[in-house]
Every structure is written in structure tokens, then in C-alpha cells.
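Example 497, ligand zinc ion.
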Amino acid sequence: MTTVSVTYEEALTRYEPVFGLETHVELGTRTKMFCGCLTTFGGEPNSQVCPVCLGLPGSLPVMNRIAIEYTIKIGLALNCSIASWCRFARKNYFYPDMPKNFQISQYDEPLCLDGYLDVSVNGQTVRVGIERVHLEEDTGKSLHIGGATGRIQGAEYSLVDYNRAGIPLVEIVTKPVPGTGSLAPEVARAYVTELRDVLRSLGVSDVRMEEGSLRCDVNTSLSPLGSGAWGTRTETKNVNSLRSVERAVHSEIERQAAVLDEGGRVIQETRHFHEESGETTSGRSKEEAQDYRYFPEPDLVPVAPDAAWVDAIRTSLPELPSARRARLIAAWSLSDLEFESMRNGGALDVVEATVVAGASPRDAQKWWMGELARRANDSGVEVSALPITPADVARVSALVSAGTLNDRLAREVLDGVLAGEGTPDQVVEKRGLAVVSDDSALLAAIDEAITANPEVAEKVRSGKVAASGVIVGAVVRATRGQADAARVRELVLERLS
Ligand SMILES: [Zn+2]
């Protein structure tokens, strides 16, 4: 244990952080990697198993073509080159959640190699190199019962569920990312965010971090500033939220700086991230590749995707998040910050659909990021989950532009739609919400307000125009907010001139 403590800012005055990420993604194929078992999440334990994924003697794996196609898609989206020939390998290790005592993975012949993903942090673009993308099978899940922490230490017994065993799992490994300084934690988070969005746009995974279909291991090392040498890295395992990715890098920078300041050395090991404290604790010392005794999997033929197939997959790629970002920023004249807040607020899709439905980009943003974001926040749901469609919002926006509604009435219409009272037009009709634009109706209310406030009226007549606010306010109240205040003011001044 270290006795000194070093703040984050202090650490960065002496050390250069380098990080890297290994991300595991469960593919959303209907069936498992090497058998026909279903991959549905949340089934009864051990209800989605067969001799192949239980590793029973004599069973033989058969490759899932869709999983290969999805992996190639991911590789192409990450600007990788696709191997024209590669093999699976056996990675030998014994864990109860791996019933074959080996995992079918890829070793020195990954399907996709050498790409990159550009991420944006505070308007600055950082290119994160991709070392490799390979395909393997997921393990089962151990459940330790009776301990306080859910870990094996202190548990009375353990149960194992093999439903997850054999689900196709893609591992995406970055190259080390140097040179980001104090932004390292944010860049790490931005990378995982961007990667998640890419995977989602490809439709290859549901990328739910909370359900474990996207899991990250975060490597961090420090080297003395300007030394040019790289420090020893630690690997923080299974960091399961975007926020935790950022915190894990942050806390490892502080911890390693304290170790180095004391003259100690950082040990190459895996570490566990603790959600509550935001700190990491030591796990096991890191295995080397040779410990796994990899060898080519003899039960599977090599994978040799032909160029025409890879080209067809390339042509079928959807618009990727970076391209969409550039397109929307240009088309809607957005700042980076406006785009980020829309993306982080989960509002991009609904705002775009509202624009397609006829609203101006400014109006679509205004309603979704303002009033509706507040409603979503109040009820603890994503803005896109609110019971209102982009077409409804576009209609409300059109009614405002046409002068039928003012902003206050528009908010009432949104209320009605959210409460299930029908379309915006139905709500306007049922609640009688249209702006009173008929001057004669307004003049009647104005005359009443003038009679009720004779002293104020006198002041306005004698030239104190500012006093007219009292009368305008009375008229707006009398018409239950349905009068256009600017028009009322004009009419009041005319009346009292
Ligand atoms: Zn199976």
C-alpha cells in the first residue's frame, strides 16, 4: 500500500498517461456461435444449452455464418483490413463457467486488423487506433451465493448458468492511446460511447452495458513526462458503464502516480473496479499468452471470406455516427456542444424525425431538448420513450408558426398529447386552446381591464407607456393566456392614445 496520495492534477504535472481498451460485445445473432441454441437474454438458467455449448465429449461445433458477417461489418466500420484467410484457436484454461476447459477464440490470426475510430472530445478529434477485432465464444455465468459481495470469497456455494456459454462475442482491442494528457479519462469514455453508437447503427448488438452485452477492460499506464518510455500497465476488468470507464482511468492515474512517487513500481495485474468508491483493487497477476497454450482449433475449417462477399457487406453498411454527425452539424448549423447535448440526451433520432416531419431544426431541437427533456427527466424515462411522436411535435411547432398557438399554449397541447388526449389538433379543439386573435374579443377584455384600473389608464394616457403592462397582464389573465400579449399591448396603447 502507498502512504502518499497524489491528486489528479499533480499526477499530470509529472506523468504521461497512456490507456487502451479491450471491449467485448455480445453479437445479437438469434443462435449461438457454434450450435443452434437461442441467445435470448433472461431465460431460466441452463434452459438454452445443448451438448455443443456444454462441451460434452464427441460434440462438434458448426460456425454461425451471421456471426462472421457481423464481425466483418464491425471491422469495416472501424476501418480495418479483413483477413482473406484466418483460423480459430483453442485458448486453454479451466474455469467452471467454461465447461470444455478451453474457449474457441482467435489468436494470431484475427478476422479484422489495423483500423481506427475517430472520437470527438470538446470539439477536438482524437484518432484511436484499432489493433484487432476478433471473434470468440462467451463463457457461462457463475453465481456465488452466501457472501456479502457476490464474489467467490466468503461464498457458501456457487451456481453456474450456461445459457450465455457459446454466444458469439467480438473482442475489439485498441492500440495504446498516448498523448491525451489530462483528457485521457474523457477520451476513453468518448471512445466507448462512439464505439457503442457505431455498433448500434450496424445493428449487430443491443450494446446494453447494464445487461453485459458490452463490457470493457481498461488498460492504464503512466510514464514520467518526456521520458519517451512506456510504463507498466494494469488492466481494470469489466467496467460496466460509460461513467465507470472514465472513473477507472482517472483513479488508476492517481493510484499509479502515488506508487511511482514513492519509488515503487506498478505491478502488471488485473484490477477490479468498485462502482461505489470509484477505485480499483488488486486482482490476479496477469497471465501471458503462453499460459493459455493456444493452438489452431482442429474441429473447425478456416474462415476465408471471399472479396465479393466483403465488398457486398461494405456496400450494405449504414450511415455511421461520424458521417451522420458531420451531416447534421452542417445541415442544421449546430455547434459541437449542441450536437453532443442532443446525442447524450438520446434525442438525435426524434429530433431528426421531427425535422423530416416538417419542423425547422431549431424548433425541433427547442421542443425536444427543452420542454420534453424536462418531462422525460421528471418521469425518469428517455426522451424518446415519451408517449408523443415526432409528427405530433412537428404539428405543434407548425401551429406555433401559424400563430394558432403561443409557446404557453403549445406546452398545454404537449401536456394533453402526453396525457393521451389525442393528436395536437384534437387537444387544441377539446381544451379550446387556440390563441384569441379576434380583435373585437380582445377589445372587450381591454375595455374591462381599463375600467377596472382607472389610475393606471390615466398614467398611460399621460405618456407613461411602461405602466400599460398592468393592463396587458390583466387582459392576458382574463383570456386564460390565449391572447397574444404583443397584439394586446398594441391595442391597449391605441385605445389610450
Ligand atoms: Zn448449444
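Summary: The mean pLDDT is 91.
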